[in-house]
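Lecture notes, unit on protein representations.

Consider one protein chain, 151 amino acids long.
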Amino acid sequence: MPSTAFFFKALSVVFQYGMLLVLLKVLYRLVRVVQQGVRREVKELRTVQAEVHEAVLTVVDARESSGLAGRRFAFSDEITIGRGEDNDIAIPDAFVSHHHARIYQHGNQYVVEDLGSRNHTYVNDEELDGSTYLTPGDVIRIGFVAFEFER
């Protein structure tokens, strides 16, 4: 009799752990499916289709608290950047001036202009003095946020 009880006890333990493994596998697959769906939705939200006559600023580096990481901003004539809410891109950072910089179209090119900010605007890690023309791939750093210019 003791051997039969031992057999059923062992079978019960194997069955319990087997069910636990099956449940964990189902939970793992469910989490992966949800995660892929969320990633797809976030990617679609972040993707901004630029028109032929538009330029795009893509945030390539930012503090998580700014809420700007990975965002894209399409514009055609002009875009303003600063800490103030009245800017097209508002950066909640003490190192950013209320009206820090603007990018505007001049002829067939785009120009970035520092608006007299205290902590400066940087283009390709060089301090911007006044304004300069942008080329695709230029990196503009304002405070702790870096944008890549695309055309």
